[in-house]
Design a protein that fits this description.
By secondary structure, the protein is an alpha+beta fold. Helix content is 46%, strand content 13%. The radius of gyration is 33 Å and the shape is elongated.
Length: 577
C-alpha cells in the first residue's frame, strides 16, 4: 500500500491511498465468497463458487463494488495508524478509482493553536463596593417574602404600601398600531412590579396554597421520566442548580427595576404594590387614593428606552377598575431571623447579607476579567478550525435544544415544523455559536496545558463536599450517592478544573498571589452549565475519572467495532467515508 499526505487549510489532511494488486485480489476473493452466499449460482453450493465464476455471473463491477467498502475501511485504518493521524470528525471521500484501486480522503485533525501572548495581558480587578443601601435592600427583600395581607374591615382609599387588585383594559392610541404589532384589548399588561402574594387575606388559605404548590412540585419531580439513569441524575442536578444560591447583585438589580410586567392572576386581576420604585410613577399617582369599585383612566407614553420592547414608542390608555385594596403587614425586624431560620439576630443577618453581597461583587469583577481575557485571547490567537468540529458542536447545540423541548412533550419533528426549518437548516443556525464554543474550548485547553493545571482525587472529593454544603444533612445523604456516580464525578471534576483555571487567569491578569481562599469559590449553580461544557471539552481529570472527549463522538479513534463505511461506486465522491 502506498500512502501520501498533504496538509490543507482548515486543519485538513489529504490522504492519497493506493492498494497493491495483492491486497485488491484478496479483497475481491472475500467479496466473491460473500456474493456467492447471497446469490444462487447454478452448479455450486452457497459460498463455494470460485471468484471467476461469480465474476462471470455477476460481473467484475459488482464484485468490486462489494469489495470496495472493506478494502477502503481497512486501508484507511492502516493509513491513519501509519501517519499517526487522529480524526476529530467525519472523514470524507474526495475521489475514488477502481482500476488501479486508488482513493483520496480528507481527514479533519486537531488544529494547531497559536496562543496570543496571554501572560502579558493586564486587566485590573475592579470590584464595586457594597453600600449600606444594597445591604438594606437585600434585607428588605427577605422581609417582603413574609408579608401578610389583610383585607380592610372598613373601606378606605388606597395608600402608599397597600396592595391594589385591579382589572385592567388597555388601548393603543389611534395611529400607533400596524399590521405586525396590532394589540388587542387587555393584551398590554401593566408595567410595574408584581407582588408575589395570594388574593385572599386569610393566612390559612395562603398556607394551603403553599402546601398545594409543594405537592405540585413533588408531582412534577415524580412525573419526570427519562430513558437512562444517567439522564435522570443529570436532570436532578439541573434541578438542584436552579434551587442553589442566586447572584445577589442581579437580584438587587431586578428589585430596582419598576418596569416588569404585572401578569394577571387566574381571575384576571393584576396586583400592584403602591410603593415608589416598585410601581411606575404614573400608576402610583393615579391609584393612591382610589377606592374599591372606582375606575381610573390613565394615558402613558413610553420612550424608546422602555424596558418592555412591546411598549417602546407607544402611547397606551389604561382603564383600571379597582377591585380590592389590601393592607400589607410586614413582620417586625426582630421576627425576621426566626422566620428565615437564621441563627442569630438582625445585626447578624445584616453582616451575613453584606458578606454575600461582597462575595457576589467579587465574583462579578472576576467574571468581567475572565470575559475580557477570553475576548482578547480569542481575537489574538490563531486557530485553523476544521469545519467538522464546528458542525459537530452545532449539532450538539441543536440536540440540546431538542432535549429541552422534549421535557414539554414536543418532538424534534414538531420543533422543526414550528421553526419552519429542515434539520440541516436548524443545525446551521447554531454555526456561529458553535465556532465560538470550539475556539474557546481549544484555547482553554491549551492554556491548561501551558500552565500545567492538574487535578487530583482529593480536589474532586472537596468539590463534592463544597456542593453539599448548602443542603441539610438529610438532603446531603440523599444526594451523595448520585454525586458519586462516574458521570457526576466527571461533572464535579470539570467544575473544579474550571475554578482552578479561572483562578490562574485572574492571577495572571490582575496580579493575585495565586492562593484561592474558600471565600473565593464560585457556587457551582452560578455557572453549572458553562462549567460542565468547559470541563467536558477540556478533558483533564483525575486518573479514576474518565474525561469527556473534545467533542462528543469525535475521539479520533477508528475502532474495529466502528468501521469506516466506504461509498458504493455509484455514489458521489464527496460522500462520507
Amino acid at each position: 500500500m502506498k500512502v501520501t499526505t498533504e496538509r490543507l487549510p482548515k486543519s485538513l489532511v489529504a490522504l492519497d491511498i493506493e492498494l497493491d494488486q495483492q491486497q485488491v485480489s484478496k479483497g475481491l476473493d472475500r467479496a466473491a465468497r460473500k456474493l456467492s452466499q447471497q446469490y444462487r449460482i447454478p452448479g455450486f453450493r452457497p459460498g463455494k463458487a470460485p471468484r471467476f465464476i461469480v465474476e462471470n455471473y455477476l460481473g467484475r463491477e459488482r464484485i468490486m463494488e462489494e469489495a470496495s467498502d472493506d478494502l477502503m475501511n481497512v486501508a484507511l485504518k492502516d493509513a491513519l495508524k501509519a501517519e499517526s493521524l487522529a480524526p476529530v470528525g467525519q472523514v470524507k471521500l474526495d475521489s475514488f478509482e477502481a482500476e488501479p484501486f486508488h482513493f483520496r480522503v480528507l481527514v479533519p485533525v486537531e488544529p494547531t493553536v497559536e496562543l496570543a501572548p496571554y501572560t502579558s495581558f493586564r486587566l485590573p480587578l475592579e470590584q464595586e463596593p457594597v453600600s449600606d443601601e444594597s445591604v438594606q435592600k437585600l434585607l428588605d427583600a427577605q422581609r417582603e417574602q413574609h408579608v401578610v395581607l389583610k383585607s380592610l374591615e372598613t373601606p378606605r382609599p388606597a395608600q402608599i404600601g397597600d396592595l391594589v387588585s385591579v382589572r385592567s383594559t388597555s388601548d393603543l392610541n389611534e395611529g400607533e398600531e400596524d399590521d405586525e404589532d396590532e394589540e388587542d384589548e387587555d393584551d398590554v399588561e401593566l408595567p410595574g412590579e408584581a407582588e408575589k402574594v395570594v388574593t385572599s387575606a386569610d393566612e390559612d388559605d395562603e398556607d394551603d396554597e403553599d402546601d398545594e404548590d409543594d405537592e405540585d412540585d413533588e408531582d412534577d419531580e415524580d412525573d419526570e421520566v427519562v430513558t437512562s439513569a444517567d439522564e435522570d441524575e443529570l436532570d436532578e442536578l439541573d434541578e438542584l442548580d436552579e434551587l442553589d444560591e442566586v447572584d445577589e447583585l442581579d437580584e438587587l438589580n431586578e428589585l430596582d427595576e419598576a418596569d416588569e410586567d404585572v401578569e394577571p392572576d387566574e381571575e384576571g386581576l393584576q396586583k400592584i404594590v403602591l410603593e415608589e420604585g416598585r410601581t411606575r410613577p404614573e400608576f402610583l399617582e393615579v391609584l393612591v387614593g382610589a377606592q374599591p369599585g372606582e375606575t381610573r383612566v390613565i394615558t402613558v407614553s413610553y420612550g424608546d428606552d422602555e424596558a418592555n420592547e412591546a411598549l417602546r414608542g407607544k402611547t397606551v390608555t389604561y382603564t383600571l377598575q379597582v377591585e380590592q385594596v389590601q393592607e400589607r403587614i410586614l413582620p417586625e425586624w426582630e421576627e425576621l431571623p426566626t422566620l428565615t431560620d437564621f441563627e442569630g439576630d438582625v445585626e447578624g443577618m445584616r453582616a451575613k447579607a453584606r458578606e454575600r453581597l461582597e462575595h457576589a461583587a467579587s465574583e462579578k469583577a472576576r467574571r468581567a476579567v475572565l470575559d475580557q481575557f477570553m475576548e482578547r485571547a480569542n481575537a489574538e490567537s490563531v486557530i485553523d478550525l476544521p469545519d467538522a468540529m464546528i458542525e459537530e458542536r452545532a449539532a450538539e447545540l441543536f440536540h440540546e435544544q431538542v432535549d429541552q423541548f422534549k421535557r414539554y412533550g414536543l418532538t424534534e419533528d414538531q420543533l422543526l415544523q414550528s421553526m419552519g426549518k429542515t434539520h440541516e437548516e436548524a443545525v446551521g443556525g447554531f454555526t456561529e455559536q458553535a465556532e465560538r464554543d470550539v475556539r474557546t474550548q481549544l484555547l482553554l485547553r491549551e492554556i491548561i496545558k501551558r500552565e500545567s493545571i492538574t487535578l487530583d482525587d482529593a480536589e474532586v472529593a472537596a468539590e463534592l463536599e463544597h456542593f453539599l454544603e448548602d443542603y441539610e444533612p438529610s438532603r446531603r445523604a440523599e444526594l451523595r450517592p448520585m454525586l458519586e456516580t462516574p458521570q457526576m464525578q466527571r461533572m464535579l471534576a470539570s467544575t473544579a478544573l474550571d475554578r482552578k483555571l479561572r483562578d490562574r487567569i485572574v492571577e495572571l491578569t490582575a496580579g493575585q498571589d495565586g492562593e484561592t481562599t474558600a471565600d473565593e469559590h464560585v457556587a457551582i449553580s452560578a455557572d453549572a452549565e458553562e462549567a460542565r461544557q468547559l470541563g467536558d471539552l477540556v478533558g483533564t481529570a483525575p486518573e479514576h475519572v474518565e474525561p469527556q472527549p473534545v467533542l462528543e463522538g469525535s475521539d479520533g479513534a477508528v475502532g474495529e467495532d466502528e468501521p469506516v463505511t466506504a461509498p458504493q461506486l455509484s455514489e458521489a465522491p464527496t460522500s462520507g467515508v
